[in-house]
Task: structure prediction
Amino acid sequence: MGTCHLRLGNYEPAVKAFEQAAKLMPYDRTVQRNLRLSQEMLQREKKRPAPTRAPEPVGEAV
Result:
């Protein structure tokens, strides 16, 4: 599940899934790597400014 969330850009659920996997398999390098990657991507996402919307058109279109 964590890998699916990671690939879709759903970083918070990915972190949670990899944290659970890390509890079950604490020495698995792939799980540890994916957990770190998910955490890094989540931090980047939080630092990124929110997208701005294009201004609404004023008046009628011709």
Observations:
- Residues 2-47 form one domain.
